[in-house]
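Marked as duplicate of an earlier ticket. Keeping the data here for the record.
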Amino acid sequence: MMSTLRRWLTLGCAALALQAHAKAPDCPPPPSPSAEAVAQARGQARDRGFLWRIRKDGRTSWLYGTLHVGRLAWVFPGPKVSEALQGSQVAAFELDFSDEAVVQRLLDGLATAARDPAAPRLPDDLAVRLRRQMEAACVPADWQQSLPPEMLGVTLSMMVGRHDGLETSYAIDPALARLARSAGKELVSLETPELQIDVLRSKSAAELRENMDKMLGDLERDRVRPLLRRVADAWAQGRAAELSGYRSWCECARTPQERESLKALLDDRNGPMAQRIDALHTSGKTVFAAVGSLHMFGPTGLPALMAARGYEVVPVELYR
């Protein structure tokens, strides 16, 4: 189970650029909070997630573990996270979704990938199952022409959270990016849209069938929604030990192929992101780097990689 989990958690950032619109009575409507609700959420903001202070060469930067879906109450950072963001010169994200050019590159790249004649073709039986899931989620049918099937699978997997109040439009990364941009910070993307699309795409017909069969099977058996709730709750409550041990309960690292896929989706991306953060810090700037929380844990997580580069790395207690 849960090829979907690893793809949602590691590549969900790409799906933040995609918004679905409800078209049926049984679909949750798109969020439309009142001014009063927004003001209340802002006034009651508290720290959530995971924060590390990293220090080297007399300068302090920060690592912050995010979530690619959220609730309205979560999009306003609490005092410690706000202080770290406001005190940094550069705000760095996997992708900066407050930059319209980055979003357009991602959408253009996805459309190109969907039309690629050399890409493996989704088998007819899986295409039928995919359309059923799109209809259930009120996703427009023409998305099949503008998105590769893997991206549709990831997007559908994130959208099931809407039934539990978890929305991509309340994702933490773009909310922080908007705050950073309004504060006049320099914003940086640690990755490129092209890289995220390349990691997402299946390299063969057999890989496409396996990936999509697992994604769709998890959606059809309602395995994604409870897992998404568990991950979101662990993030919101700061349960670091639970997320750091997710390989023991996600059922996504059982076979050699699953472990290799997980390595490509997490470990292989962490090294280049750590190098980019280090380069920004070494150039004399202080950095607030906000990246999906699963990139933060274990010996190949960003805190460990920064420590290996000579940084003093200290976790910040957010839940006292």
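See parent ticket for discussion. The first strand starts at residue 50 and ends at 56.
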